[in-house]
Structures are given as C-alpha cells and as structure tokens.
Specification:
Largest sheet: 3 strands, antiparallel
Pfam families: Citrate_synt
Protein name: Citrate synthase
Shape: globular
GO molecular function: citrate synthase activity
Bound molecules: s-citryldethia Coenzyme A
Pathway: Carbohydrate metabolism; tricarboxylic acid cycle; isocitrate from oxaloacetate: step 1/2
Distance between the termini: 57 Å
Number of helices: 18
Radius of gyration: 22 Å
Catalytic activity: oxaloacetate + acetyl-CoA + H2O = citrate + CoA + H(+)
Order of helices and strands: HEEEHHHHHHHHHHHHHHHHH
Length: 397
C-alpha cells in the first residue's frame, strides 16, 4: 500500500506500478528491502540471506538459509554445452556482451523453467539465475584472459565461490594452495552485492518488468535487464567513474573537470554523482565509503585513484552548482574503487552490478508472475511530430 509511505497522494497517481519489495525515500535517504533498513541488512547479513528476503518477503531462519545456500550452489554449475558459447566470443569481447548473450540463451537449456504459471518452477528458475550468474560472469572473465574455467564448489560461500572461479590459478576444481581467498575481500564483496541487490523501479528493473508483462520467458527478461544496466548513466557508471578518474589524472586537474561538469555546453558529467531519486546522500554511498577506507588500508594501496576520488568528492560537495542541484555521490562513485582494490578488472564492474541485481530482478519477476492479472505494460507518449499531411510522389519532393 503505497499510501502508507507516500507523502504526496499525487505520487500514487504517477507511480508506474506498485510493489512490496523495496521502498526508497529520496529526500530522507531511506532505502528499505521488504521493510528492513539497508544499513541493518548490510551490517548483519550474507548476500544470499538478502536474496532470500527479496524473493520470499521474509528473512530465512537458519535451516531455510542453509537449504537455500545449498540449492544456489547446486545450481551454480552451467551446462557443458553452454561453455562452448564462450568460444564464439572474440577474446576482447566486453563481458557484458557475453553475459547478455549467455543468459538469454539459458531458456534453450532449461525448458521446464518456462512453465511460468507454476510457482515451484518459478522458484527453481529464480535460484538457477542467482546461482549461475557468478559462474557465467567468471567464465566471461576467464575467457577474456585465456584461462581455463573453474567450476563452482559446493562447500564455498557465494562470494568465496565467485572469487575462486575468477582468480584461481588452476583449472582443477579446487582452491589453489597458494591462492588464499582473503576473507576481508569476501566481506567487502558480500557488502557490495547486498547494497546493489535491488533499488525499486530503476531502469533495468523496469525493463525486466516490462518484458515480464508480455509473458516472455524469465531468461529473456533478465537478459533485457542486463542490457539496460549496461548504460553508463545506470549500471555502467561504476566503470565510467574509473575511466573518468583516469582521464582527470591528478588532483591538480580536478577544478578543470568540475568546471566542465557545470558547463551546459559541455557534455561531460561527473560520473558517480547525482541520482534520479536520491536528492540527498545515497545511503549506500555512505556505507560504501567506510568500506572503501578499510579495504584500501588493508591492501596498503594508497591508490592514487581513491585520493583523486576524495578530492573530486570534496570539491564537488562544496560547489554551489552541485549543492543547488542536490548532486551527491551515488553508490557507483565508490564501488569501482573497491572493485579495483579487489583486483576486479574495470570492464567487469558492471558485471558485478548485474550479479547482485539479479536478486532484485528475479524478485520483481516473481512478484509480477504471482499476480496473474498484471496487464501488459504499454506506455503511451506525448506526440510532438508533424501534424497530418498528404504523401508526395518522389518527383515532386
Ligand atoms: C544508478 O535508478 C536507480 O535507482 C539507479 C541506481 C540503481 O541502484 O539501480 O541507483 C544505480 O544508476 C546510479 C546513477 C549512476 N549514474 C551516474 O552516476 C551517471 C552520472 N549521473 C547523471 O547521469 C545523472 O545524475 C542521473 C542520470 C543519474 C540522474 O539525473 P537527474 O537527477 O534526473 O538529473 P537531470 O538529468 O534532470 O539533471 C538535473 C541537473 C541538470 O543541470 P541543469 O539542467 O539543471 O542545469 O543536474 C545536472 C544536469 O545537467 N546533473 C549533473 C549530473 N547529474 C545531473 N551535472 C554534472 N554531473 C552530473 N553527474
């Protein structure tokens, strides 16, 4: 019931849909997953616990979480024929291109999941997607660096499995003796996945819901969401932040780029700043900033990019242009720096976002499928083209 949270009744009239999953109050910087504050979930949960909450509406008890983790790990492996898909990609294909293609093809392998009217097969499909996304993501990275794929391991946690599949220096299905999976890295990744898991009707989630409203199969809907997330104004912003910092180069150059961002004639925008909804600090950015400090202290990398990021943040936050427009750092401003500290390559940053957001996408897909009366979304438009006119033969034009 949106009314209980919405300050402005007129908001309900403009809302594109109603949902019980995530609540955002952009003015107060509030983000709730199924009523729980993001700060509490980020502090206390593992990612799969939050994925369970988003999908089912309640936090799991110990045995429910244990069963869910086992099911996710059990479904993490991909069909051997699917591995051949990667051979078709050029080695330097963007991992998001591989993700869109491979996820979209899953409907060719798991026909039983296409019975979207059956709640049991819907749940199987959702856990299959959450389980397989890290495996497909890691495989796209291994393909790009010419390394053999590493299989998921049943006894590892979600984040441990991903890091092992990404960085294990061996093709056998075991953790390299000399490749110690750093638990601080696992903790940071777990936090980033929780913070990126869902965010109400953002562009990619709205894309998933639009596709789902036509009755398209779930793999096609999630592939559509991945494609929408790729844009630099949305999920591609974390990659764009790192590219922007690399372009700025030094702290001395920051004022010049702040001025460019303010110039209406200049298309340059400060990546990682601003948000469609948060007209205050993005609560996720506040949480992430603290972890950024911890990880960089841990890796003893006084990464010049982080120092540069702090200089950009400091100068933008005291600039009237940004203050008047309430443009604050968003979740993407710091997440790229942490991914870089975790040795995740820049081109994989948006893939990381997609792994996490799959939990939200499948939750919204399930929510829509549960309500059989959901009509197809068919947005109307404000027509601003030419009024009616008659055809002219080509020799009269
Ligand atoms: C995500 O929807 C979600 O929830 C998304 C997300 C999620 O979890 O799914 O939160 C993830 O996508 C975060 C946003 C990541 N994108 C970026 O960091 C890219 C840079 N940000 C901008 O592209 C922009 O801020 C948007 C698109 C994110 C939001 O745009 P708004 O709030 O609708 O602002 P606007 O386009 O209406 O502009 C308002 C004014 C304009 O200036 P004036 O016309 O008033 O003079 O603010 C300016 C804009 O030019 N402006 C910026 C700016 N963002 C807006 N100026 C410089 N740098 C920027 N980043």
């Amino acid at each position: 019931d949106l009314g209980c949270f919405t300050h402005d009744p007129g908001f309900v009239a403009t809302a594109s849909c109603s949902s019980k999953i995530t609540f955002i109050d952009g003015d107060s910087g509030v983000l709730l997953y199924r009523g729980y504050p993001i700060e509490q979930l980020a502090e206390s949960c593992e990612f799969t616990e939050v994925a369970y909450l988003l999908m089912n509406g309640e936090l799991p008890n110990q045995s429910q979480l244990q069963d869910f983790n086992l099911e996710i790990n059990d479904r993490a492996i991909i069909h051997e024929s699917l591995r051949k898909f990667f051979d078709g990609f050029h080695y330097d294909a963007h991992p998001m291109a591989m993700l869109v293609g491979v996820v979209g093809s899953l409907s060719a392998f798991y026909h039983s999941d296409l019975n979207i009217k059956d709640p049991v097969s819907r749940k199987v499909c959702a856990t299959r997607l959450i389980g397989k996304m890290p495996t497909i993501a890691a495989a796209s990275y291994r393909h790009s660096v010419g390394r053999p794929f590493v299989y998921p391991r049943i006894e590892l946690s979600y984040c441990e499995n991903f890091l092992n599949m990404m960085f294990s220096r061996s093709s056998q299905n075991y953790i390299d003796q000399d490749h110690y999976i750093d638990q601080d890295f696992v903790k940071a990744l777990n936090l980033l996945f929780i913070l990126h898991a869902d965010h109400e009707q953002n562009a990619s989630t709205s894309t998933v819901r639009l596709a789902a409203s036509t009755g398209a199969n779930p793999y096609a809907c999630i592939a559509a969401g991945i494609a929408a997330l790729w844009g630099p104004a949305h999920g591609g912003a974390n990659e764009a932040v790192l590219n922007m910092l690399a372009e700025i180069g030094t702290v001395e150059n920051v004022p010049k780029y702040i001025a460019k961002a303010k110039d209406p004639e200049d298309p340059f925008r400060l990546m990682g700043f601003g948000h469609r909804v948060y007209k205050n600090f993005d609560p996720r950015a506040t949480i992430i900033r603290k972890t950024c400090h911890e990880i960089l202290k841990k890796t003893q990398s006084s990464d010049p990019l982080f120092e540069l990021a702090l200089a950009v943040e400091e100068q933008a936050l005291k600039d009237d242009y940004f203050i008047e427009r309430k443009l604050y750092p968003n979740v993407d401003f710091y997440s790229g720096i942490i991914y870089k500290a975790l040795n995740i390559p820049v081109e994989m940053f948006t893939v990381m976002f997609a792994i996490a957001r799959t939990a939200g996408w499948v939750a919204h897909w399930m929510e829509m499928m549960e309500d059989a009366s959901t009509p197809i979304s068919r947005p109307r438009q404000l027509y601003v083209g030419p009024t009616r006119r008659d055809f002219q033969p080509i020799d009269e034009r």
